[in-house]
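User: quick one, fold this
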Amino acid sequence: MTTIPFKLPLNIKLYRPVSPTGVWGWLTTVDHKKIGVLYGVTAFIMFLTGGIEAMLIRTQLIAPELKIIAPEVYNQLFTMHATTMIFLAIMPLSAAFFNFIIPLQIGARDVAFPRLNAFSYWAFLAGALIMKSSWFLGGSPNAGWFGYAPITTATFNPGNGIDFWIIGLQVLGVASLAASFNFIVTIINLRAPGMTMMRLPLFTWMTFITAILLILAFPVITVALIELMLDRTFDFNFFNTKAGANPILWQHLFWIFGHPEVYILILPAMGIVSEVLPTFSRKPIFGYPAMVLAASFIAFMGWLVWSHHMFTTGLGPIANSVFTLTTMLIAIPTGVKMFNWLGTMWGGDIDFKTPTLFAVGFMSMFLIGGISGVMHSFSASDYQQQDTYFIVAHIHYVLFGGSIFGIFAGIYYWFPKITGRMYDEKLGKLNFWIMFIGQNLTFFPMHWVGMQGMPRRIFTYDSGMGWAFWNGFETIAAYAIAFGVLIFVINMIKSWTGGKKAGDDPWDGRTLEWSIPSPPPVYNFRDIPIVKSLDDFWHTKQKSSNSNTKVKSKTKVSDIHLPQPSYWPLLVAVGLTIAGFGIIYNLVFTGIGIGIMLITVCAWSFEPVNEPDSH
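Assistant:
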């Protein structure tokens, strides 16, 4: 194995392998496919931890007046469950697909900024470790995933749990922004010749719109978190009611971020479903321009509905009326998407493989969640539903039945491309039906107990309230969901290690990722494809089958140059982690962490992009 010399600003000469293997290869990789796998595996582990937290919550509520879990630990559980699922599971699972699939779908050899891409993963891992380490370092955050002031201020919450939450989210925001800028530039600049914006696959469109939302939304929550951190650390008065501050400011800042965040979570799943359904219906997507326009309108309207989370805060009839109207209006583009998916399937030769089942399951579950969402848009009825289990039912139909089902559809759909092997179809369908039935049996009864007045985030309840039967029923059904996830894990491990070889194009795919070997080579495309239409790969296969000719590659593999592996993104993230823990414990360590970041970023900037003797 050859080595490449390069110089640091400190004139220290180091050597690094060109193609490191093993653990070192994963630590230094800038290959978007490996980074996608790292994102996916890490996020799925986080998903499992969030599921364990959920099961502990449901176990505590299986019967009235139980004391299985202490009240303070229960507060930490529901806070960490929601935070984990939103920021550490659904978002990075979507990012795993962004990383692995987007360059393949647009005919690129990598992302625009490979080392920045690697840094985004390591920063995500840093944020996840900061957040999860709170369980072992004195207590986790305990004020809900929304962190309402003033209960998150030092006066009412003196421990370090909220500090872990603040710093963890800030670091995760750095990761999201780095990835988002990267994918916007990649999609705009690295598309294959002929791939106009209106020939982009819909998953790529959803990624593009999601990245824009992230860039616009995260600065808002960043401002709110900085203000809260200054309140807690230096006794500022942004949310101190005794000093005349208004805690409603926090709610405005949080939900201006929080509602676009809902679409950040759901749009990637919509993109996945928009890839799965045409492929398995053997038809092009119905109404492609309308789908793009609907997604864009959803992204725009997502900024105009935040106060429907605040109908009970006393904003007044004018504000409530305006946000009632905007909330109802945003249902229209979502309905357009639903009818377009149905139009795609209508009259198609549908193959009900596991990805299709999860895609159809997504549609039905998201429809139920959307209908209950429209019910929340009426401020008068929201007064009864607010902060009850009706809201818990709604959000789980949207984010579990919606986002998670869409992500599972994507995992099964692209599993052959990522691994080169087929999954077990029988286990896949069993996985779907257990999760689908468990989802409905767990979360639908929550509508009923919510309307009966059961508050959300409640530690226990009196036996005379009449909630015991359905809470026990929901808990047993939740264990069924856990069993379904276990079957999924078994299927993935079994298939990845010993599944049948998949071939390059097992689904007769439409998009460019199916035109290359499975798993893809490090350079993705030996020859950059030329795109002439939407669903170009279908047209290409049709022409080649008619002519029975194969075009030989004109490019030598030795002539393809890719960015070198680099450990600097990892080291920058290490400095970021030390700085984060320093803010919580000792500002001296913050200075050390910032110093490490400055040195490693400087070294990163001086690192050569290619081999010295290559172009």
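User: anything notable?
Assistant: The longest helix spans residues 71-105.
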